[in-house]
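To the wet lab folks,

You asked to see what we're planning to order before we commit. Fair enough. Below is the target structure as tokens, and below that is the sequence we designed to fit it. If anything looks off to you, flag it before the synthesis order goes out.
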């Protein structure tokens, strides 16, 4: 809430904005402080948070930044806890309420709103990924003859005695980092590989331990607080988001922005990509890429429609966060196809397109229909801060799309070009590459030469050569 001069006088949060805001204007307050607040309100702006936990963190950071006159309770509030993984030879895990320092090499996670969630995480770490808790300076190889009781309880690998190597210990610390980052799928994949390896060695006790850890990870339900919120709120960035809200006439502050772009090679290996900016900063953990399935050849418009539709299908299912703004890299036609996707999903979401070269902003024309685009684009000044933010987001999604396509193409021509041929699986592809060295080399051979590889007949050999030549591998 702001007064007539634009100064922030109150910051609050609510599950239902309608009920909360209207309550201020329905009653004659006995409390003179609240009556004074209502008299001074000239403007109300809104930030939509994904969870209650996120709302608490945003509220706390805004109050700390602006110190509004009518906010009393949180001005001297307790700080939220952080979890640190120390930057030592054998890292420790510690919990503190101290704000992370910019020059610290320790890895920091937080803030955490619920102490219960912190305790649940630490219990899981202590049981399956134990790190030392002592403050001793431990050299590689250890410096003690006997471990402490923590090792006997299974709470430490005892690097002080040399019971584990530095690499083994660091692997355990990396597991904890993945867990705290919320990258459960990556951590589970690491554990599955170890479980399979232990089972092959007949070490069934170790395999069972990894299995139990996997189950515990999937059962763990912890709050989601965005990585962008781990940093102190940039007041200037908040003003830029406010300017963008005013420029695009958005109903709420664009706290989270999705951006979309398409990348392909002459209509092949087409990918639709989405990047996410939160608080004006990129959040790579929410980036997504989609291999285009329904579009043949070069058709960026239909590819945009498929990408937007698949992205927000996940949002509707509650698997992804809903942004306050979607940005399309392109012009009015790309915007129209994005609007078609949202219309098919029956999803109301502000979306604009930013065209290259002239940097024109195309916006919808709702008065003409759900998928209509305004023929007159917005033209902002080159030094406009709102335009610069949109350009930065557009450039990031373009970079991500190009990188995604290059990586996919590299993998395809290294190995999968063979595996795409009917009758050629991973085993035969490995045999062919092991015999002849590369896909390029195979493409110039006579079919008879390929029959030297077990399982490759003359008919399959001709099929391989014809397919590789159709890809024009040089």
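Sequence we intend to order:
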């Amino acid at each position: 809430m702001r007064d007539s001069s634009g100064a922030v006088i109150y910051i609050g949060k609510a599950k239902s904005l309608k009920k909360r805001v209207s309550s201020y204007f329905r009653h004659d307050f006995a409390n003179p402080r609240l009556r004074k607040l209502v008299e001074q309100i000239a403007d109300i702006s809104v930030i939509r948070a994904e969870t209650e936990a996120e709302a608490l963190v945003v509220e706390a950071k805004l109050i700390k930044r602006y110190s509004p006159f009518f906010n009393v309770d949180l001005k001297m509030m307790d700080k939220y806890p952080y979890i640190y993984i120390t930057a030592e030879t054998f890292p420790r895990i510690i919990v503190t309420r101290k704000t992370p320092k910019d020059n610290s090499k320790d890895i920091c996670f937080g803030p955490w709103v619920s102490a219960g969630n912190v305790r649940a995480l630490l219990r899981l770490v202590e049981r399956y990924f134990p790190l030392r808790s002592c403050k001793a300076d431990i050299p590689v190889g250890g410096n003690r003859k006997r471990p402490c009781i923590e090792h006997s309880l299974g709470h430490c690998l005892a690097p002080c005695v040399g019971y584990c190597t530095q690499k083994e210990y660091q692997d355990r610390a990396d597991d904890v980092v993945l867990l705290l980052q919320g990258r459960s799928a990556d951590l589970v994949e690491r554990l599955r590989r170890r479980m399979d390896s232990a089972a092959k060695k007949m070490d069934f006790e170790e395999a069972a331990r990894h299995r139990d850890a996997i189950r515990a990870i999937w059962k763990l339900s912890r709050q989601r607080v965005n990585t962008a919120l781990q940093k102190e709120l940039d007041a200037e960035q908040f003003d830029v988001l406010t300017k963008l809200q005013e420029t695009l006439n958005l109903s709420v502050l664009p706290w989270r922005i999705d951006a979309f772009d398409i990348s392909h090679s002459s209509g092949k290996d087409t990918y639709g990509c989405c990047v996410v900016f939160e608080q004006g900063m990129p959040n790579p953990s929410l980036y997504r890429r989609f291999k285009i399935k329904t579009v043949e050849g070069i058709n960026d418009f239909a590819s945009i429609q498929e990408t937007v539709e698949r992205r927000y299908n996940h949002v509707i299912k509650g698997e992804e966060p809903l942004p306050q703004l979607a940005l399309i890299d392109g012009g009015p036609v790309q915007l129209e196809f994005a609007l078609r996707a949202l219309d098919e999903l029956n999803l109301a979401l502000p979306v604009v397109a930013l065209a290259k070269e002239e940097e024109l902003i195309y916006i919808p024309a709702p008065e003409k229909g759900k998928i209509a685009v305004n023929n007159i684009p917005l033209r902002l000044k080159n030094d406009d801060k709102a335009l610069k933010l949109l350009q930065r987001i557009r450039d990031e999604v373009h970079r991500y799309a190009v990188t995604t396509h290059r990586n996919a193409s590299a993998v395809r021509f290294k190995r999968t070009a063979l595996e795409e041929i009917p009758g050629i699986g991973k085993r035969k592809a490995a045999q062919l590459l092991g015999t002849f060295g590369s896909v390029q080399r195979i493409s110039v051979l006579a079919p008879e030469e390929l029959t030297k590889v077990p399982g490759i007949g003359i008919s399959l050999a001709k099929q391989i050569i014809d397919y590789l030549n159709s890809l024009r591998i040089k």
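Structural context that might help your review: The longest strand covers residues 268-278. The domain at 1-77 is CATH 3.40.1440.10 (GIY-YIG endonuclease).

Thanks,
Computational group
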